[in-house]
């Protein structure tokens, strides 16, 4: 293996060992601080200046042959980025990546993992810069863009490398097979086992979490030997391009072809994803985005292993609570965070129409719904705090959806635009909360991406569970929250979670939220319902990214 | 968990631990003796009597609702079996299996693995009986039917259980997540992780290896919590039905619904596989058989994880040898064994037209081809031995293919029918060996299932490698054999193996054959070329058969 890559592996070996322990015991762990104060002052303070220096000019990357330039990102905070990117000539890129693959394969697991860990370490150091790019493409508020776009995304990348390392480590490099033959000499075979990548890996990124949802597929594929094409969403290219640049630098320094990680940007007008997805050399596809396109990939890109993170009807069921106030406050945060644009944001909140039990007495349905609406209202009453939690709406289509959905139920809390102190043209909207009857599956049973949610009046908690089971069974869900003070009902929720393969968050209040998941401990999505066919990250996420090719020949008895 | 299942787990725990060690170190190991003399005399001697007692009558299994009876198997040794089987009513079966699933899931990994290991132990004890059923459906000769249909198939089943156990063991049942909050109390979450099966598993068996190719999927799915529908080939139902009966008995004794393993037999005239494969509740499909049907499944059954073992152009490349005789003898056995009806049997043998180097001097192409033909002829000159190696041709279509292919090249060795001492109507044919030029891709580059192979005259070993790379790249291969006395060429073969993802057997002579693979050590197929999209068995074969569903709730700081 390359001496340089070996040094990288040795440098990060302790982190890797800790990560293996973390995915095994699944307690809290991260090598990447989420507290921005832990980063050097100059890295933090200079980030916006460095970001501005990128604007209005080409962003250079290594490209085998250039077909043209694309660009056109606009910040949801109200300005054009003006960055342009080379679009590679597809045939030349595929050929170059295929040519680069054997050396990357033959370098071995330690070299590849060393390179991946160094890429992650450098990405971590530039988290403030990544945060700028994430903010002004996804619209995430700065602190969320820092955490989710920086250390939390790096955590998920490291988690993928760790699963890959563990899976590859379980295959021995060699074995001696000695089969007794009674009185005769034994049969002896010497065997070698090679980790062989599947082929070119295509990672299709989304506009709302351009790094968090991209790093698992990128690092799982790269660590197992596959060259990776990063195909960013046309509205959020820059964070992915910055990632690609770091990857190319580290690869090149370690003596590998930098095109092993290549960016293929496109535009909404001339998309290239379908063409790439059906390319015979593409053997792995990771996708985050809409159900329609995810299902198209699952059904059409049958030459590839396809890993999809789509959308579903994220669900909260309220049966009973100790006190409504901390529950409403907790849910208010979940509904407000990034204005419901997380794939984990709740949409359907089931409450029995007869109301719920609390330690302070019974609350009617309207009291529960009202408490929720008031909690959101109160939480967002300070405009600066509201802007710092809501962030901006990534896409004009999402903003338009708020108006389109207003008529779907009785308005419990109307959505309103907010003005950002620094960016007056920012697209900021508070949540819309609607009340509907359980019969209105047409309203709450379709995904309404954005700050739109429903409090649904059901006949009972049993009815809520039955409805949730049907709706999630059909449409999927990435999160399931539930509240009860009754242990038997808690077990029914646990059973529901297993039946629909959605992770359960029970009775959350305080500082943990249904829409947040922690790498190394929480599995993000299960892969077992229509919202996603893969989990970030589990063994299945890495095991099919490589095959084992063996050889055997006669050996001499010892 | 069921007390009974726990006892089963404890009983077989030591075997399981040894199996975990075996798949890790990949040396020789098996708990199931392949030597028939290790089995009780009565078990061996009574097998044919017990087999005959099964003929001409219904074979009872537990079925939720019966739609009708099917049957019609005929022994390739020339008689009708006359066994009939209940065909379940499909809707009722799916409903019953879904209803049985939660209890099987909730029993936990130890209970499920305990049941699986007990099923395998009982199957092992009845290996002589299974051998009878395998012989008189697949046509395998008795000793092969015993070994491949009995202990070797059980090895592959145990290997699948072992990978499943290892994958499930890596997910902790619970975890405590404690996130420091500076001066404040830490955030504490208590988490549970559940192994949740994907759904109903469909295992589509083949006619030539009705147990060997069925047990991996059956046991990988069952151990991970999925109910399993066994859909045998209409020509080879009995060995699968016998397996289902044992599984149902063990399940029922352990307190589980026996329909967790259900047989769905059909007929060639009214096949049900497509309908079953598209059933929304079917989430896993294992298939062994033709490329056409395997590809149909991969492209259409997109609601399921599909694992296919199809066919390819198994390849041997001869560059140079120490001595031609042991090489020719080794290949003669590989070509003769089960008359080329193994998915691992060589079809394309590349030899430079300028001939090859040997320690005894140069041999011309015709001398090499002639040595091969003579070795087969000599090996099969004793009729009893020939019948004991060739077995019978499973399908009349395969026998007809011999005649259809005779014109594809120059006949080096013609195929001839043989008469079996005990079964004069047995369908027994010796191998057809043809000589063709490398330009005849139309002849050797299509799968010719059965005792049909080609010695192909190439320009050089480099040309052989290039051709093999193209043909296997396009059509796949499950085995790759190669012969060279040159270390540099050996490394080129190693590189070829990785490039086409086919396992390499180098310079085999003596008692190890390219078409045999050993469980726990050899990966059968890689899943990386068109001949198969899965390997028996690796981590990828089990990892996507279950998902992990977690729950989390607040805990108290310690």
UniProtKB/TrEMBL annotation, chains A, B:
GO terms for molecular function: L-glutamate gamma-semialdehyde dehydrogenase activity. Pfam families: Aldedh. InterPro entries: Ald_DH/histidinol_DH, Ald_DH_C, Ald_DH_N, Aldehyde_DH_dom, PaaN_2, Proline_metab_enzyme. Transmembrane segments: none annotated. Residues 92-471 form the Aldehyde dehydrogenase domain. Keywords: NAD, Oxidoreductase. One of its GO terms (biological process) is L-proline catabolic process to L-glutamate. One of its GO terms (cellular component) is cytoplasmic side of plasma membrane. PANTHER family: DELTA-1-PYRROLINE-5-CARBOXYLATE DEHYDROGENASE 1, ISOFORM A-RELATED, DELTA-1-PYRROLINE-5-CARBOXYLATE DEHYDROGENASE 2, ISOFORM A-RELATED. This is Phenylacetic acid degradation protein paaN. It comes from Halomonas campaniensis. The lineage of its organism: Bacteria, Pseudomonadati, Pseudomonadota, Gammaproteobacteria, Oceanospirillales.
């Amino acid at each position: 293996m390359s001496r340089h890559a070996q040094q990288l592996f040795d440098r990060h070996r302790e982190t890797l060992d800790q990560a293996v322990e973390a995915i095994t015991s699944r307690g809290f762990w991260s090598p990447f601080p989420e507290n921005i104060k832990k980063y050097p002052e100059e890295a933090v303070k200079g980030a916006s200046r460095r970001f501005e220096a990128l604007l209005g000019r080409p962003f250079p990357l290594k490209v085998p042959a250039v077909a043209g330039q694309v660009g056109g990102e606009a910040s949801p905070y109200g300005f054009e980025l003006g960055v342009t990117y080379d679009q590679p000539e597809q045939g030349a890129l595929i050929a170059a990546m295929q040519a680069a693959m054997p050396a990357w394969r033959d370098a071995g697991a330690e070299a590849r993992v060393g390179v991946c860990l160094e890429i992650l370490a450098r990405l971590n150091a530039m988290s403030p810069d990544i945060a700028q790019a994430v903010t002004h493409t996804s619209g995430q508020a700065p602190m969320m863009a820092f955490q989710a776009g920086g250390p939390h995304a790096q955590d998920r990348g490291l988690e993928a490398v760790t699963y890959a390392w563990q899976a590859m480590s379980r295959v021995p490099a060699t074995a001696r097979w000695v089969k007794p033959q009674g009185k005769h000499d034994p049969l002896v075979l010497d065997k070698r086992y090679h980790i062989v990548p599947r082929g070119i890996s295509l990672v299709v990124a989304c506009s709302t979490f351009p790094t968090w949802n991209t790093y698992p597929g990128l690092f799982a594929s790269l660590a197992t030997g596959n060259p990776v094409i990063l195909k960013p969403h046309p509205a959020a290219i820059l964070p992915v391009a910055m990632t690609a640049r770091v990857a190319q630098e580290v690869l090149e320094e370690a003596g590998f072809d930098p095109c092993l990680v290549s960016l293929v940007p496109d535009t909404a007008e001339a998309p290239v994803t379908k063409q790439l997805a059906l390319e015979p050399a593409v053997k792995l596809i990771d996708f985050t985005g809409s159900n329609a396109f995810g299902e198209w990939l699952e059904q059409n890109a049958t030459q590839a292993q396809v890993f999809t993170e789509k959308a579903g009807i994220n669900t909260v069921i309220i049966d009973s609570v100790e006190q409504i106030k901390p529950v409403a406050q907790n849910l208010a945060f979940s509904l407000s965070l990034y204005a419901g644009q997380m794939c984990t944001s709740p949409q359907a909140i089931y409450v029995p129409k007869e109301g719920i039990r609390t330690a302070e007495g019974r609350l009617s349905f309207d009291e529960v719904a009202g408490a929720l609406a008031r909690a959101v209202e109160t939480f967002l009453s300070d405009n600066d705090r509201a802007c710092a939690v809501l962030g901006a709406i990534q896409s004009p289509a999402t903003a338009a959806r708020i108006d389109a959905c207003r008529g779907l139920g009785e308005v419990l809390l109307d959505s309103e635009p907010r003005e950002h102190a620094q960016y007056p043209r920012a697209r900021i909207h508070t949540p819309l909360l609607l009340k509907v009857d359980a019969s209105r599956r047409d309203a709450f049973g379709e995904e309404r991406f954005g700050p739109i949610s429903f409090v649904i009046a059901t006949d009972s908690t049993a009815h809520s569970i039955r409805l949730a089971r049907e709706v999630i069974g059909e449409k999927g869900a990435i999160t399931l929250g539930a509240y009860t003070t009754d242990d038997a009902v808690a077990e029914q929720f646990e059973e529901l979670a297993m039946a629909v393969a959605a992770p359960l968050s029970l009775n959350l209040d305080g500082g943990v939220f249904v829409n947040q998941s922690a790498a190394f401990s929480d599995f993000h999505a299960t892969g077992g319902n229509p919202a996603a066919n893969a989990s970030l990250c589990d063994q299945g996420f890495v095991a099919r990214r490589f095959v084992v090719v063996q050889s055997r020949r006669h050996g001499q008895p010892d």
